[in-house]
Amino acid sequence: MLHLRHGSLRVDLLDPTSEASRLGPRFCAGGYVWQVHDDTVGPLLSGPEGPEPEPDPFNGHGLPESFRDRSRSGAPLLWNDAGTEALAPGAGTLVRRDGAVVIGEPCVWHIAMTPTTAEFRTEHAAAGYACALTRRISLQERTLVSFSALTNRADRPMHLQWFAHPFFALDAERTTSAILPRGSRVPPDFGFSIDADATLRPDRAHTGKDDGAFALLELPPDLPLDARIAHPGLPHGIRFSTTFVPSECPVWVNGFTVSIEPYQVLHLAPGESVDWELRYTFG
């Protein structure tokens, strides 16, 4: 693990090389936050498999960030025309093997560390696409900032989806709540409800990894996400915010964790760059 430390918080990040067994084709390898520790409370984050020390890489843990290799409707993203190879920004080259999508060649990261900041840089190409990506994780007092900058290095446009996939802890009753922006809504009968104070709650407690609920939040238009998620060990919870307006925002819960996932759709012309931030303030 790589570590950041400031005050009473310690951040554990995966080393993309030595901990490659915890990575897969789904999450960005550089800047992968595995756990945040509070000196008094202990570990603050969870995952779909809860206390399992070696969860399936597809499920992950902590505060990973991800890209989609195809849209929710099934349209391929950054695949070649034959569908045999794709660029996975921050992961490497995707290929099909025995019917599954796997990493054919991982990208190589250049890492620079200080006690409170870790910067990861990579450039890689596949399937006729190419990109440069910088991921910078910094700890400022009790706020963790995840910065990303992506540049299209190819001579063709890049169309992709990128999203945060944080795994917040549940309380002892296996439930949680989150204060969302005013005007947020959730479809009925999808396992969640939002009250008049814009507080989201699961309709029931769930048990284990495979018992859960999923819904697409309807957030106020033209506003970045700014939410406060309850935490069993932090009286003021975790404030989670983005610098971008989500294109969509799923929420899901199981017996171990709840996740609010702000997506963004990116269209980059050749040579074009885009950057964004996520912020997590721990109580």
TrEMBL record:
Please indicate which superkingdom the organism of origin belongs to.
Bacteria
UniProt region (Disordered), positions on chain:
42-71
Q: Which InterPro entries match?
A: Gal_mutarotase_sf_dom (IPR011013), GH-type_carb-bd (IPR014718)
Q: What is this protein called?
A: Aldose epimerase
**Species this chain originates from:** Actomonas aquatica
